[in-house]
Amino acid sequence: MTVPTLTTARLTLRLPELRDHAAYAAFYASPRSEIIGGPLDETRAWKVLSNDVGHWHLRGFGWWALDDGNGCIGTCGFHLPAGRRDVELGWSLFSATGRGFATEAARAALAWAGARWSRVVSNIDPRNDASERVADRLGAVDTGEHAAHAPECKVWLHREAAA
Amino acid sequence: MTRAAIPVLNTRRLVLRGPEPGDYPNFKATFASYRSRFMGGPLNTYEAWMLYAAEIGHWDIRGFGMWMIHDRVTDATLGMAGGWQPAGWPERELAWIIWPAAAGQGYALEATDAVRRHLYGQGWTTAVSYVDPKHLDSIRLCERLGARRDPEAATVDGNDVVYRHPAPAALVDTQLAYGIAREIAHYADPKLRPEGMPVD
User: Fold this and answer.
1) Structure pTM?
2) Could you give the domains of chain B?
3) CB of B46 within 8 Å of any CB in chain A?
4) pLDDT for B45-94, tens place per residue?
5) Among A45, A47, A57, beta carbon nearest to B21
6) Is A43–B86 a contact, with Cβ atoms under 8 angstroms apart?
């Protein structure tokens, strides 16, 4: 399995690697990660990194590291762990927030996915305003439903993927 | 190391290959069971799947990882053995898990011995195993492999004990190496098959 590398105006989306661990660990150690289940210690942050890589092998799709040329500033991609119905598009900006990087990466991810899935969702905690704005910019709509596996999260449906 | 480049290790009864998506069911069953209690389990469906993803991802990230152990004849999976080093691990670890139905047949010994010789051949000069002190089967396996408690070595989180494996030179043409080889051979081809009721 070869993981595709995507390029956008400002980012390279590539397979996460060992050198990205410091960025994962710093983000998951920070209070910013609370809204997605953090903070996590170094070993648990490592598990997220190795999950992100292993997911590609298990499913043929997964999360990319977002590289701005100076290293990993976050992650973005599709995931479908066991027990879930819908493919989820997600994003986590570790640093460099507020500059549209999450939207830029997620647009590239959606373009890569094309018509691969009939339904793509993003599960977003309503307290996560920044993430809701990204979903909105991507053209996703809040279905009003709550995610079965994480009742605090609302299910946003990506219209472009459904079209 | 990409998954395609993971070396295949052959032993008398076993074939060790990189973990494949199709090998997941027995992994999941084991980590859903009480068998996994010394390895962070039992895990729910999501946790088990994510751990399997992490097992596969470890190969890409570190260049080594856990092999899937297969029966050489039936190709059925029996467990996993290999090298393991998440962030926060003080040293590179030799680790193993055998599915409950395959326990007691020396598979962990045979697989881990092969893995250890392979990794030593790749330049490892030492290795440890982090063991829950209540996990008597694993402690016994450490001892059968010639590993000894290393009270000076850093533990993962203070709840484990560290067994240090014999150095590469201690496994070349030594009584220890001969003993391990004999025990493995005995599982495959027992020289003594007890019959009838034991007397005392």
Assistant:
1) 0.91
2) 3-188 (3.40.630.30)
3) yes
4) 999 999 999 999 999 999 999 999 999 999 999 999 999 999 999 999 99
5) A57
6) yes
